[in-house]
């Protein structure tokens, strides 16, 4: 058992969440099922998906395959999914849609349920539904994605349950210091999506030199930089060897000088379709988009 993948962070409700996990955005159904199975076989605990990815059913099958292959139990997996924007804003619609998500995932609960985006005029009503899902035990923790300070402040003004997690884009090219500081102050755990900046940093000279010094890959150095800032980090790969490499980041430490070098790469520019999405319920049809099998 890879003990590094058992490394956990305590959320504000006391739940222990793995610090490193596997994300499955932009993967086809066959790829998703296989990579989830292989992740479990390689001792991964945290698996992150979403209705919008269109592959929850494949995640569910991959988890069952992995549990069968390894003899592990469902309780050994920390499963995250997210509420689709098109299901937000109506309490009954959201609860019904989430029940269908659980069926696809072949489970009666998820460990973490997130609002995928803070859709204008809908996220507070959506949060009311998540609070009841949490109270009913269908989610062990609830949180949000992509909330900035303005929307998080508004949510907290209406919420009875404090979000446990805010999943945001975070990598050496974008640090989002305002919301990071806010979440630290409120005891909301931060989780990084696109931790490698969509691959744009893997050939960076400064990171390459640091990687050579530690006899690690550039990807391992970047992931370590995020881990040392107490982020939960989601990696994505369909290659078993890279899964192992991504997990092999707990046996070295970046120095303050190395961290400062990586910090200097910040441009505060999002890498993936963020500007197109914005905060509205249906910009350019994106809100209604769910990935189709084979679309990637």
What does this molecule look like?
Helix 2 (56-70) runs parallel beside helix 3, helix 3 packs across helix 4 (123-135) and helix 7 packs across helix 8. The radius of gyration is 18 Å and the shape is globular. The longest helix has 15 residues, at 56-70. It has helices spanning 29-41, 56-70, 91-105, 123-135, 149-158, 177-186, 205-214, 218-227, 240-247, 256-263, 274-277, and strands at residues 8-10, 16-18, 20-23, 46-48, 78-83, 112-115, 142-145, 165-169, 189-193, 232-235. Helices cover 39% and strands 14% of the residues. Strand 7, helix 5 (149-158) and strand 8 (165-169) form a beta-alpha-beta unit. The protein is of the alpha/beta class and 296 residues long. It has one domain (3-201, 229-238): Alpha-Beta Barrel (TIM Barrel), CATH 3.20.20.100.
Short summary:
The protein is α/β, with parallel strands linked by helices.
Average predicted confidence as pLDDT: 90
CATH topology-level fold name: TIM Barrel
CATH superfamily: NADP-dependent oxidoreductase domain
Structural class: alpha/beta
> What percent of the residues sit in helical stretches (DSSP H or I)?
25-40%
Q: Which architecture would the CATH scheme give at its second level? A: Alpha-Beta Barrel
Task: Please describe the biggest sheet, giving its number of strands, its sense, and whether it closes into a barrel.
Answer: 8 strands, parallel, barrel
Rg: 18 Å
State the total count of DSSP E strands: 10
CATH class categorisation: Alpha Beta
* Coarse shape: globular
Kindly give the count of domains. Answer: 1
Q: How many helical stretches? A: 11
Distance between the termini: 32 Å
Strand content: 5-15%
Uncertain segments are: 274-296
Strand order of the largest sheet: 3-4-5-6-7-8-9-10
Helix and strand run: EEEHEHEHEHEHEHEHHEHHH
């Amino acid at each position: 058992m890879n003990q590094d993948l058992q490394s956990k962070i305590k959320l504000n409700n006391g739940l222990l969440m793995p610090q490193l996990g596997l994300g499955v955005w932009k993967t086809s159904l066959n790829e998703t099922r296989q990579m989830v199975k292989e992740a479990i076989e390689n001792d991964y605990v945290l698996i992150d998906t979403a209705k919008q990815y269109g592959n929850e059913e494949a995640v569910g099958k991959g988890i069952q395959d992995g549990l069968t292959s390894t003899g592990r139990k469902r309780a050994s997996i920390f499963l995250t999914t997210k509420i689709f924007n098109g299901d937000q804003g109506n309490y009954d619609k959201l609860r019904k849609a989430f029940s269908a998500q659980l069926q696809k995932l072949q489970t009666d609960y998820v460990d973490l349920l997130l609002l995928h985006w803070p859709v204008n005029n809908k996220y507070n009503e959506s949060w009311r539904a998540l609070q009841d899902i949490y109270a009913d035990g269908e989610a062990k923790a609830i949180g949000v994605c992509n909330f900035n300070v303005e929307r998080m402040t508004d949510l907290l003004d209406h919420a009875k349950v404090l979000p446990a997690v805010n999943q945001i884009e975070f990598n050496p090219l974008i640090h989002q210091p305002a919301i990071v500081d806010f979440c630290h102050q409120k005891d909301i755990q931060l989780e990084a999506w696109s931790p490698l900046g969509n691959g744009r940093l893997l050939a960076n000279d400064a990171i390459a030199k640091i990687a050579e010094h530690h006899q690690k890959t550039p990807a391992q150095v970047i992931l370590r930089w995020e881990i040392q800032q107490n982020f939960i980090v989601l990696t994505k790969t369909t290659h078993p060897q890279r899964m192992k490499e991504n997990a092999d980041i707990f046996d070295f430490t970046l120095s303050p000088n190395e961290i400062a070098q990586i910090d200097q790469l910040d441009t505060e520019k999002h890498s993936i379709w963020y500007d197109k999405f914005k905060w509205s319920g249906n910009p350019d049809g994106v809100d209604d988009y769910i990935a189709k099998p084979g679309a990637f």
